[in-house]
C-alpha cells in the first residue's frame, strides 16, 4: 500500500529526487519508452514535428526523449526544474566519463547529430519568458509538477506561450494513478484522464493531430508508479499568422 505515504512535489525535488536512481528505474520502463520513441520517430517522419528550435521541458536527468527528434531541429534546449537533473544532462553534453550510458536507447533511434545543446530552467507553473520554440516535448513533467487540474491547465497555457504560432507540442504523460516512486521517495503524480488532457490542450488553443494510448508496462511495475496508461499526443498551436 502506498496511500499512507506523503507524496512529494515542488521544492522536494531539489533534495529528495535522486537522478541516478531515476535513470536506473527508467531501464525497467524500456518497453514503454520504446513506444514513445516509435511514436516520436513516426511524428517526425510524417512531417508533424520539425522546425528550428526544440525545447524539452522537464526532461529530468535523461536525454533519451529527444533522440528521434534531433535530426528534425537545429537547436535543442534541455530544461528541468531540478539542479541535479540538469547536472546529469550536462555530464552527457560535456562528454564526461561519468555520464550515463544511453547506448541502449541510441540503438533504437540511431544517429544523433551534433546540435547546439544548451540548458535552461523554465518552470511551467510560472509565466515563462524566452524566445519561442517551433517544437516542445513535455514528457511526464506536468503530472509531476502540477498539484491539481487547474494548474495543469494553466501549465499547458504556459507551454503554449513559448511556442510559435503553428508550433507543435509532443505531450507524453501518464493517465490515472497518483504516485511515482524513486528509491524510497514517493512523488506526487496528478491523476488525469485522456479527456482532461485533451481538454487542457483544446482550451490552450491547440488542435490535436495525432494521439496514441500506450500500456503501462505491466502489473509488476505498479508498485513503482500506478499509471493505468500512457498517452502520446501531437498537438499544433493555432492562430497561425500568415505573412
Ligand atoms: C517523472 S520526472 C520525468 C522526467 C522525464 N521527462 C522523463 O520523461 O523521464 C518529472 C520531472 O519533472 C520535473 N519537475 C518537477 N516540478 C517541475 C516544475 N515545476 N517545472 C519543471 N519541471 C518540474 C522534475 O525535476 C523531474 O525531472
UniProtKB/TrEMBL annotation:
Protein name: Nicotinamide N-methyltransferase-like
PANTHER family: NICOTINAMIDE N-METHYLTRANSFERASE, NNMT/PNMT/TEMT FAMILY MEMBER
Record's keyword terms, sorted: Methyltransferase, S-adenosyl-L-methionine, Transferase
PROSITE patterns the record matches: SAM_MT_NNMT_PNMT_TEMT
One Pfam family from the record: NNMT_PNMT_TEMT
Gene name in the database record: LOC100369070
Coiled coil: none
Family the UniProt entry places it in: Belongs to the class I-like SAM-binding methyltransferase superfamily. NNMT/PNMT/TEMT family.
